[in-house]
Amino acid sequence: MNGLVLAIVLSAMGQGDRAEIEPAHARNAVFAALVGEGFSADGASVRLPSPTVRDGQDADAQRAALREVAGSDGKLQELLRKSVAAPFILKVHDVKANDATLRVVDIWFVVHAEMADVDPATEARKAQGQEVGAGNMTMRTELLDDAALRAAGIDPPASHPGDGPETWYARVHGRLLDRIAFVTTSQAVATRSKDSIVVASRTAQAFDKPGPTANAWQPVAGGDARPYRGGVSYAKISRLAIAPGALLVEMHGAFEEPHDWFQGAPILRSKFGVVAQDQIRRLRREAEKRSKP
């Protein structure tokens, strides 16, 4: 999952329950916080829903859960189709805050790939310095090294390759519709079980203090930088018993959109589908290339 997807494709409020988290993912402190405590900004709060598919579910249980999301057996079969252009499910709604709106979205899609080929930390390193764009929006991701973390008062995370949480910090430089520029630094934590991978991310409050690395936004046309609360998200990638060789990706999150960005108009929200389609098809093409001998 790259920075653009995790920064823009964000998800709905719902009921979370720490007790329902699988043991492998209970070690993911960010994931546990998002489904347990949620995200608050400017007087409003959302709590991210627990994943639709759980580890260890049999094919019947998975089918029932996904049928509810898709709406029918026919739509579920379309969702599972092995094609770059297979559909995805996107659900969006808003939560009003004092001087902002919390934009919230759910998204589900299927990629035909092997779980062993998915390594979130490696993908994050590959995205270093790259700029990606869709829907007249661009994002550039910069991974923070140990020196930058210590300068912010954060102890560099220990590495646990293969058997424990992998943690990294990523700074995203974004530009939205040629009107808004922002910079946020997020903490990301990835955990892996036999059946799934979870990558959870939240804007790091250690970078809220004023300065050149502050979480902030400003108009592209000029003006002072203003504090920005950012957002949260998680993606769960699950092995599908109902479609061997296929992985379900579900993403959930929330982010603050200050009123001064677009005066409350759903201009940014209207771009979610364009961004999702672009990025999902890119991921599917990459998976297709890997599967070819």
Would you kindly provide a brief summary of this structure?
With 293 residues, the chain is of the alpha+beta class. It has helices at 3-8, 23-26, 29-36, 59-70, 73-80, 120-126, 146-151, 259-262, 272-291; strands spanning 39-41, 44-46, 89-96, 100-112, 131-134, 137-143, 166-176, 180-192, 196-203, 216-219, 226-227, 231-239, 246-258. The protein has one domain: Alpha-D-Glucose-1,6-Bisphosphate, Chain A, domain 4 (2-Layer Sandwich), CATH 3.30.530.20.
Keyword list:
293 residues; alpha+beta; Alpha-D-Glucose-1,6-Bisphosphate, Chain A, domain 4; 11-stranded antiparallel sheet; two-stranded antiparallel ribbon; 13 strands; 33% strand; globular; disordered N terminus
Per-chain topology:
Layout: H1 3-8, H2 23-26, H3 29-36, E1 39-41, E2 44-46, H4 59-70, H5 73-80, E3 89-96, E4 100-112, H6 120-126, E5 131-134, E6 137-143, H7 146-151, E7 166-176, E8 180-192, E9 196-203, E10 216-219, E11 226-227, E12 231-239, E13 246-258, H8 259-262, H9 272-291
Antiparallel strand pairs: 1-2, 3-4, 4-13, 5-6, 6-7, 7-8, 8-9, 8-10, 9-12, 10-11, 12-13
Can you walk through the features of this model?
The model is unreliable at 1-19 (pLDDT under 50). The chain starts with a helix and ends with a helix. Helix 4 (59-70) crosses helix 5. 26% of the residues lie in helices and 33% in strands. It has a single domain, classed as Alpha-D-Glucose-1,6-Bisphosphate, Chain A, domain 4. The protein is an alpha+beta fold and 293 residues long. Strand 5 (131-134) and strand 6 form a beta hairpin. The chain has helices spanning 3-8, 23-26, 29-36, 59-70, 73-80, 120-126, 146-151, 259-262, 272-291, and strands at residues 39-41, 44-46, 89-96, 100-112, 131-134, 137-143, 166-176, 180-192, 196-203, 216-219, 226-227, 231-239, 246-258. It contains 9 helices and 13 strands. The strands form 2 sheets. Strands 3, 4, 5, 6, 7, 8, 9, 10, 11, 12 and 13 form an 11-stranded antiparallel beta sheet that branches. The protein has a two-stranded antiparallel ribbon with strand order 1-2.
